[in-house]
């Protein structure tokens, strides 16, 4: 395929490292949430999104009192685990870089979704 822009060695290492980090981090967080609260990571993410929902979707989907109770019980241990697995190992500069990269990729994905 002449038109394919293959990844360079550096890009391959970065991509594979990212995939490994994402997969292992998601798996560990999912196990912790299941063990400590009975929630999956996907369930926790939905509940967390609903607690901060400021857009129009909140008019159609609302967090129940039970859902709020579940997220409030799960959040402390989950936050501790996120800190232990990720944030405690990064400098402020690394956090800024990770946030900048993440926001840029999400903005690009959101723009692509809007164009479809």
What key attributes describe this structure?
globular; mainly alpha; 116 residues; 2 domains; single chain
N-end to C-end Cα span: 25 Å
Range of helix content: over 70%
Structural class comes to: mainly alpha
> Strand share of the residues?
under 5%
What is the oligomer described by this structure? single chain
State the low-pLDDT regions, or none: none
Average of pLDDT: 89
Radius of gyration: 18 Å
Topology pattern, helix = H, strand = E:
HHHH
Q: Main beta sheet, described?
A: none
Outline the secondary-structure elements:
Layout: H1 9-37, H2 41-51, H3 65-85, H4 92-115
Helix pairs in contact: 1-3, 2-3
Task: Provide a descriptive summary of the structure in words.
This protein is mainly α and 116 residues long. The chain has 2 domains: 27-85, no CATH class; 90-116. 73% of the residues lie in helices and 0% in strands. The chain is built from 4 helices and no strands. The chain has helices at 9-37, 41-51, 65-85, 92-115. Helix 1 packs across helix 3 (65-85) and helix 2 packs across helix 3 (65-85). The longest helix is centred in the first third of the chain and has 29 residues, at 9-37. The radius of gyration is 18 Å and the shape is globular. The two termini are 25 Å apart. The mean pLDDT is 89.
Task: Provide a quick synopsis of the model.
With 116 residues, this protein is mainly alpha-helical. It has 4 helices and no strands.
């Amino acid at each position: 395929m002449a038109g394919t822009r293959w990844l360079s060695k550096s890009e391959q290492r970065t991509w594979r490292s990212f995939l490994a980090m994402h997969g292992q981090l998601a798996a560990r967080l999912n196990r912790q949430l299941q063990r400590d609260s009975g929630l999956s990571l996907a369930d926790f993410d939905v509940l967390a999104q609903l607690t901060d929902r400021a857009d129009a979707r909140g008019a159609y989907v609302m967090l129940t009192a039970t859902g709020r109770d579940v997220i409030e019980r799960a959040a402390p241990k989950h936050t501790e685990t996120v800190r232990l697995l990720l944030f405690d190992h990064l400098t402020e500069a690394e956090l800024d870089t990770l946030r900048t990269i993440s926001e840029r990729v999400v903005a690009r994905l959101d723009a692509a979704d809007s164009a479809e």
